[in-house]
Amino acid sequence: MIKIKQVTLHHIVQSLKTPFHSSSGYVQQRESILVEVLDEQGVTGWGEVVAFSTPWYTEETISTAFQLLKDLFIPLLLQHTYKHPDELEHVFSPFKRNFMAKASIQSALWDIYAQKQNQSLSAVLGGVRKEIASGVVIGLASKSEMMTQIQQYVDEGYQRFKVKISPQQDIELIEEIRKSFPDIPLMADANSAYELNDIDRLKQLDKYKLMMIEQPLAADDIIDHAKLQHQLDTPICLDESIVTCEDARKAIELGSCRVINIKPGRVGGLTASKKIHDLCEKNNIPVWCGGMIETGISRAHNIAIATLPNFTIPGDISSSSKYWEEDIVEPEITAVNGTIKVPTNPGLGYIVRKDLIEKYRLSKTVYTD
Ligand SMILES: O=C(O)CCC(=O)C1=CC=C[C@@H](O)[C@@H]1C(=O)O
Ligand SMILES: [Mg+2]
C-alpha cells in the first residue's frame, strides 16, 4: 500500500537555448512545476506539470494547475491509500479535465509504485523495448534556418523530423526540404492552423511523402478532420484533439485520423496513456509519444511509456541538450545515433538534481497530511 505523507511543489523557470515557435505559440522562458511526492516509507516520486505559462496549446496553464493542485488534487491525494497508481483516476474523476495537473501527481505515484516493485517504470507499464527511437521537432523559423537545423539533426542521427507549418509557410517549405532531403522520415505539425476550406492546399502536400500531418484543424473538430482525412492520402495524426480515451475511440470510429500522438500530460497521465495505447493497438492505429519542451522528469515518463508495443513511430523525445543548457536529471537524456537507452533501474531511472532545481526555483511549497 502507498500512503503519501508530503508533496512539494517546486515552481521553476529556465531559459530555452533558442526560442521555440509554432503556429499557435511561442516559448522562450519555460516555467514548470516539479512535483515531489514522499510516501510514509520514505520513497520519493517525481512528476511535472507540462502546461505552458499561457493557454496557447491547451486551456491549462502553470497558474491554473498550481491552484488546483493546492486546493484540490493534493488534499485528495493525501486522503487516500493506494495499491496501484491507476486508482488515482477514480479519485480525481469527479473533477473535470485539468489533465496536466492530474498527470503530474499520477506520474509521481507511478514512480513510487515502480520503485516499490523494484522495477523500472517501463517494466511496470508493460514496456517491451530496451531502447526507443528518437525524433526531433523543428520549430517555425525562416526556411533557411529550418533547413540548417534539419541538416544538423540529420547529422546527429535523429530518426524522424517534424517541422512546424502554417498557411504562411507550408508547401514551399516542404518542397525545399524534399529537394535537399528526399528520403528522410518527415512529418508536419500545423497546431490547428488550417480550416476545412484549406483542403486544396493541404492536398498539395500529398506529393511529398510525409509520414503524417499533425493536427491540421481545430482541436474540437474531429468531424472536419474525418472529412479531410477521407480526401487526403497523407495520414492525419491527432494531438490536441485527443484528451481522453473516448476522444480517441470517436476519432478512430469516424476515421478522423490514422495515427495518434500520445502526451501523458495532455491525457491525464500514464494510466490514460496506456488505455489509449491499447485502444489504438486494437484498431491498428500506430501511436508515438509527443513532447512538451519538458525537463528530464517528464522526458523520463515519456521514455517509459514509449516502450509499449504500439509506440511504433519515433516520437518527439529528443536529447535534453536540444532545449537545455543543463537538465535537472542525471544522467541527462541523450539520443545516440537517434536512439535513447531505456533505464533499467527502479522507478524513473534518472536522479533528480535538487541543486539545479534550487538554482532555477521561483518558489517552493510543501503540503503535509
Ligand atoms: O518537446 C518537444 O521537443 C517538442 C514539443 C512540440 O513540438 C510541441 C509542444 C507543445 C506544443 C506544440 O507546439 C508542439 C506540438 O504540438 O507537439
Ligand atoms: Mg502537435
Automatic annotation (TrEMBL):
**Active-site residues per Swiss-Prot or TrEMBL entry:** 164, 263
- Substrates-to-products reaction catalysed: (1R,6R)-6-hydroxy-2-succinyl-cyclohexa-2,4-diene-1-carboxylate = 2-succinylbenzoate + H2O
Cofactor(s) needed: a divalent metal cation
Q: Enumerate the SMART domains for this protein.
A: MR_MLE
EC number annotated for this UniProt entry: 4.2.1.113
Tell me if Mitochondrion is a UniProt keyword of this record: no
Q: What is the enzyme's class at the highest EC level?
A: lyase
Q: Name one Pfam family in it.
A: MR_MLE_N
Q: What positions does the domain Mandelate racemase/muconate lactonizing enzyme C-terminal occupy?
A: 143-235
User: Which GO MF terms does the UniProt record name?
Assistant: O-succinylbenzoate synthase activity
User: Which positions does UniProt annotate for Mg(2+) binding?
Assistant: 189, 214, 239
The record's listing under InterPro entries reads:
Enolase-like_C_sf, Enolase-like_N, Enolase_C-like, Mandelate_racemase_C, Mandelate_racemase_N_dom, MenC, OSBS/NAAAR
Gene3D superfamilies attached to this UniProt entry:
Enolase-like C-terminal domain, Enolase-like, N-terminal domain
Q: Which UniProt keywords apply?
A: Lyase, Magnesium, Menaquinone biosynthesis, Metal-binding
Q: In which pathway does it act?
A: Quinol/quinone metabolism; 1,4-dihydroxy-2-naphthoate biosynthesis; 1,4-dihydroxy-2-naphthoate from chorismate: step 4/7; Quinol/quinone metabolism; menaquinone biosynthesis
What the entry lists under NCBIfam families is as follows: menC_lowGC_arch
Indicate the family of this protein. Answer: Belongs to the mandelate racemase/muconate lactonizing enzyme family. MenC type 2 subfamily.
Cross-referenced PANTHER family: O-SUCCINYLBENZOATE SYNTHASE, O-SUCCINYLBENZOATE SYNTHASE-RELATED
What job does the chain carry out?
Converts 2-succinyl-6-hydroxy-2,4-cyclohexadiene-1-carboxylate (SHCHC) to 2-succinylbenzoate (OSB).
- What protein is this chain from? o-succinylbenzoate synthase
Source organism: Metabacillus malikii
Gene behind this protein: menC
